[in-house]
Design goal:
It is a single chain. The protein is α/β, with parallel strands linked by helices and 261 residues long. Helices cover 31% and strands 12% of the residues. The protein contains 8 helices and 6 strands. Strands 1, 2, 3, 4, 5 and 6 form a 6-stranded mixed sheet that branches. α1 crosses α7 and α4 packs parallel to α7.
Length: 261
């Protein structure tokens, strides 16, 4: 069972992050208009110095609203690491994206900023945004992408085809893991805007954990889906991820490239 479980983790994270360029969009450089990089609003989330509440804006096309389990799980993960005494909430909006064909990182970024209801930093509220559009990414193996400091997208059409034989892993399981994984990049994981004191970044895959129990794990390749029927998909941050987040929050780990600090 241990070997099957490890293979299951390998499979799902191959789906979660099929290529580095897919997972992070097309650049880790600071973007214009203070859009930032994934992890650029990490401290704004982890600390309550200026931003005491948080909103996750969910913009979805008709038929692509995320599952309740995905948003419930995301809320639980964020509440466990982000200091937001006035709470974390969701704002769901059905939209029509002005887009045809496959999505690039720039497409995601442009549509995200066109449809944002509020600035990421507005008064005492931090807002992050998740798009759930129809269609697929230009790399059809990519299920989710982080494109700047506040915006990610999940591609439901690709997620729908990512479940294994006998619905193990299920579409729900895959969506849950992808959602937490991409938001993990907005939190700066792994080593996107800091350097961990623990060697847990995959040496061949920037921005991902080398632990197959972490939702931030990078899988280099997948195998026959039949091997993953009995596995459990990772959907939680591991001890090293949580220690990094705690260190960034209390200042013991230096954080760079912040839009606010």
């Amino acid at each position: 069972m241990g070997n099957e479980r490890a293979k299951a983790s390998l499979f799902v994270l191959a789906l979660l992050s099929a290529s580095l360029s897919g997972c992070f969009g097309d650049s880790l450089d600071i973007l214009p208009e203070r859009k930032g990089i994934p992890g650029g609003l990490t401290l704004a989330c982890l600390q309550d110095d200026a931003y005491t509440s948080m909103v996750i804006e969910i913009d979805y096309e008709a038929g692509y609203k995320p599952m309740t389990s995905s948003t419930d799980m995301l809320l639980d993960r964020l509440e466990s690491v982000c200091d937001k005494p006035d709470g974390i909430s969701f704002d769901f909006t059905e939209v029509v994206f002005d887009h045809n064909g496959d999505w690039s990182a720039n497409d995601v970024r442009e549509q995200a900023w066109e449809h944002k209801d509020a600035s990421p930093l507005d008064g005492s509220t931090l807002t992050w945004q998740i798009l759930f559009p129809s269609g697929s990414y230009v790399d059809s193996s990519v299920l989710g992408v982080a494109v700047d400091a506040s915006s990610i997208a999940l591609f439901g059409d690709t997620i729908e085809t990512a479940n294994g034989p006998f619905n193990r892993p299920s579409v729900e399981d895959v969506e849950n893991s992808v959602t937490v994984h991409e938001v993990g990049h907005l939190l700066g994981l792994v080593n996107l805007v800091y350097q961990s004191p623990v060697d847990h970044e995959d040496e061949n895959n920037e921005g991902h954990s080398n632990n197959d129990d972490s939702v931030m794990y990078w899988a280099i390749e997948s195998a026959d889906l039949a091997n993953f029927i009995f596995g459990t998909l990772p959907n939680e941050f591991d001890e090293d991820d949580l220690a990094d987040l705690s260190g960034m929050a209390d200042g013991s780990i230096k954080v760079t490239d912040q839009l606010w600090s």
